[in-house]
Design goal:
Largest sheet: none
Distance between the termini: 35 Å
Order of helices and strands: HHHHHHHHH
Shape: globular
Length: 212
């Protein structure tokens, strides 16, 4: 029988995981509404959405599942957080885009962009800090780095430049929001991860530079 304290801790971790994933989807929706540019993977998702007619959140789920299949040859093992990531972020993103208003004034759009980036940093800290396994895109990055012998930084940069370029060619939105996201998401996640990390508050900060 699981002790009460252990069950309470597990409940807190699960709540943190799922709230973090839902907030991540909301953050992505805010960035889409701003129209100032998305993070590299969402540029790719948006580009695919323009050509398939599917909702961008639906493409987040489909691409996440495809990336997860790529874990097989890399011998990566998914966790509860990995599988939850594949589904919940896309669902939350679609729901957010249905309810978020379309802002036309530049000031409101800039506010959407800023709120989306900051909220993404908070959500990243919550999701990674729950310690239920990496997201599918994170696992692809670490798996490729291990198999190729390249650094995490070089591997991540290569993957994100590739998806950004393809997404831009497909019509995804690249702009100041893309640049600001790239510059601030690492520091923001590093700031919030110690607040939410349930095991090793300071040591995992480097992992917080990416979630999907």
């Amino acid at each position: 029988m699981i002790p009460i304290v252990a069950r309470l801790r597990l409940t807190v971790r699960l709540g943190q995981l799922y709230i973090g994933l839902l907030l991540y989807g909301l953050a992505a929706g805010l960035q889409v509404r701003s129209g100032f540019g998305l993070d590299p993977w969402d540029v790719f998702h948006q580009g695919l959405a323009r050509h398939t007619g599917l909702a961008i959140g639906t493409l987040v789920i489909i691409v996440g599942a495809a990336v997860l299949l790529g874990w097989i040859p890399l011998r990566q093992r998914p966790g509860l957080g990995t599988v939850s990531n594949v589904v919940l972020i896309g669902v939350s993103m679609n729901a957010s885009l249905q309810w978020l208003p379309h802002a036309h004034r530049t000031g409101w759009r800039a506010a959407d962009m800023a709120a989306g980036i900051v909220l993404c940093g908070i959500a990243t800290g919550m999701y990674i800090g729950a310690n239920f396994g990496p997201g599918p895109r994170d696992g692809l990055m670490t798996g490729l780095a291990r198999r190729t012998g390249r650094s995490i930084r070089l591997t991540r940069t290569g993957i994100e430049v590739a998806v950004l370029a393809v997404g831009w060619l497909l019509g995804g939105t690249v702009g100041i929001g893309t640049v600001l996201f790239a510059m601030t998401i690492g520091p923001l996640a590093q700031l919030f991860l110690p607040v939410f990390d349930r095991k090793r508050p300071a040591k995992r900060a480097e992992e917080a530079t990416s979630i999907t």
